[in-house]
Amino acid sequence: MPNRLSGETSPYLLQHAENPVDWYPWGDEAFAKAREEDKPVLLSVGYSTCHWCHVMAHESFESHEIAGLMNEHFVNIKVDREERPDIDGVYMTAVQALTGQGGWPMTVFLTPDKKPFFAGTYFPPEDAHGRPGFPRLLQTINATWDERREDIVNSAESISDQLAEASGRAVPEEAFDPTVAASAVQAMLRSADEVWGGFGTAPKFPAPANLEFLLGRAARADEPEQAAIRTMLERTLWGMASGGMYDQIGGGFARYSVDVQWLVPHFEKMLYDNAALARVYLHAFQIFGDPAHERVVRETLTYLEREMLHEDGGFYSAQDADSEGIEGKFFLWTTAQVEGLLGEDAEAFNQIFGVTHEGNFYDPHNPELIGRNVLSRRTDPFPAANTSPERIEGWRRTLFEARSERIPPQTDDKVLTSWNGLALAVFAEAARVFGDAHLREIAERNARFVRERMWSNGALLHTCKDGVARIEGMLEDYAYYGLGLIELYQLTGDREHLDWANELLDVIVARFHDDEGGAFFETAEGAEELLFRQKPRFDQATPSAGASTAQLALMLQRYGLRTDGEAIAREVVAGVQGLILNAATGFGATLQVIDLLASPSRELAIVGAPEARAPLERVAAGRFLPGLALAPAAEPNGIPLLEGRESSEGGATAWLCENMACQLPAGSPDELARQLTETFPAIPDQPPEASP
Questions:
Q1: In sequence order, what E strands does 357-396 have?
Q2: How far is the CA of 105 from the CAs of 16, 124, 423, 538, 560, in angstroms?
Q3: For residue 409, what is the DSSP state?
Q4: How many domains does the chain have?
């Protein structure tokens, strides 16, 4: 019999709608019941594509015996972390404070007034791996609640007070220190894997915000570690794209690698990872000119369009790791399967893509996967004369078509404004870099979708499912989507995109700013009151929303639309500057802001009819120019950067400026290229040519 989750729209909550657990969605009803029945609350937080969430659901939440314990002794609340990142953020902070680590599924026990007193992540159905079995844990918590209530309440009060104090701490009054970024470069290089790239050990996450920071440093002529940074980046980009974390058949990246070699992934695919990593590879292509980077960008965007795009323009959130209840089954291959599809070509394919009879994937829970392989592409791609690039592509298509007949992983089809902002940014920028009209159409359609479906009465909504938008927008929604709109403006020259980005920042300043302590809260003024209003400081899987707000403010000031952009950015940086050197890899987005603040403001106005502007725009598009405010327009349209800029009769003219002081007008691609090379001396003299 369906429980209370059956009326929800979240795919994750609906996955639990048939559980015997008496689940409540987050809301007043659940906490009122806890107070009325004098029971603690069991809060379970996860997301639809989380493998270990599925495991705990199957082992515990589908068990009538365990559900009986939960229903008898607790009020049980289920939350989708993607739908409610505010709730997830507050209680994940508690989990990390109590246990020293975090992850999903998140399991937190609360008093009826929402205060945490015990927390963890995954618990097995029986004692195992140093973790108590979930039934034993439930019985222990219940007994402690009955016998030591005062201790629990006092502990919960103390934990909540400490978390609230830490979150509400005022921004320290310390001077802006641009040298923090150079020190962070050293720290990142020390933590880098010198063999496979990336940071740290297994499990290994891609950390795109850190890679973007290092790309910016790699493009600077004054960077003393430029050679080491470029080596690290090329090693990392090759490692990820050649390993199993990248889908060698269908394109797109899995969430992370379980090993240091980027070989065996955790197979779920997230919109935010693929948008951010496609952009990393796009910028790497601009710097290094490697066609392999272009291929990754195009294949990843093709994957997002093919499998994650709503027909009206919004992007879905994620795809599951599991199919037919088994993690990775959809993506794995045996030698026999390859031989059955490719015949005598199978030997060459297996050599190129690392397929062996023994297999490279092991799952002790699923012996049927013995001998299965995650595809990688790490050997000489041309071991024999007959393995031309065209033949390899033909083999990939054959396997892709065969794989399409398998039962695919489920797609979480809710549309999140924040993650769509990341997707908008890369589709718009890639359309500009590649001169691709189809990518442009996807970007413009996405902006229309969000404007029409998720923007209401001057405010963004966070999520849209089945045509219904709901949940008040959070800081990440405004900041990420605002940055995406700036990329769309730089592509189209359509001022409405820039004006909307500025309007989003107006809302941020009015409703998210901490007027007493400085910086920005994750939730808006007047939003649902949780334990405390959290401020996003660190990067998580996505960039810090505070740092993204700072980037948005700086860019809008460079267009001349604001005067407070630098002050906003400095305030955000001041809130975390003292933390960066203790954990540099947690602050990639903030480090990008520090570099923007420490560099001159650079602007490029290109005025003329679209067809006349195109050659000049291509010159700029081929180069990685971080922080450049690009303003393409047919004529001056009220944007201060374009004031007084008139093109030559029937032609187009470019003005390259620094802190609004401009060089002589450039009327030819060669002249603009010369100016850009002098202004950004580390960029390639001859930018890479994108394939048609």
A1: none
A2: 13, 12, 26, 21, 45
A3: P
A4: 4
* Boundaries of domain holding 614: 602-679
Q: Is there a contact between 81 and 88 (Cβ–Cβ < 8 Å)?
A: yes
Q: Is the pLDDT of residue 341 over 70?
A: yes
At 297-335, the pLDDT tens digits run 999 999 999 999 999 999 999 999 999 989 999 999 999
CA 110/CA 127 separation, integer angstroms: 23
Residue with tokens 């609906």: 14
Residues 255 and 368 both lie in one domain: no
Could you give the strand order of the β-sheet that contains 41-46, starting from the edge strand earlier in sequence? 23-25, 75-80, 41-46, 106-110, 116-120
Q: Final residue of a domain: which of 139, 167, 195? A: 167
Contact present, 290 and 690 (Cβ < 8 Å): no
Pairing of strands 602-608, 468-472: unpaired
Which residue in 460, 456, 510 sits closest to 480, CA to CA?
460
Q: Are residues 290 and 428 in the same domain?
A: yes
Indicate whether 42 and 155 sit together in one domain.
yes
Q: What angle do helix axes 417-434 and 475-492 make, rounded to 10 degrees?
A: 20
* CB proximity list for 554: less than 8 A, separation 6 or greater: 565, 566, 568, 569, 593, 596, 597, 627
Same domain, 120 and 22: yes
Q: What is the pLDDT of residues 51-91, one digit of tens each?
A: 899 999 999 999 999 999 999 999 999 999 999 999 999 99
Here the tokens at position 630 are 């690009």
- The residue out of 352, 380, 403 marking a domain boundary is 403
What are the phi and psi torsion angles at 616 (to 5°)?
-70, -40
Does 556 fall in a domain?
yes
Same domain flag for 291 and 416: yes
Please name which of 648, 678, 649, 650 lies closest in space to residue 663, comparing C-alpha atoms.
678
Per DSSP, what are the bridge partners of residue 461? Answer: 472
| Nearest-angstrom CA–CA distance, 120 and 140 | 14
Q: CA 302 from chain center: how many Å? A: 18
Query: Both tokens of residue 592?
Result: 């990008």
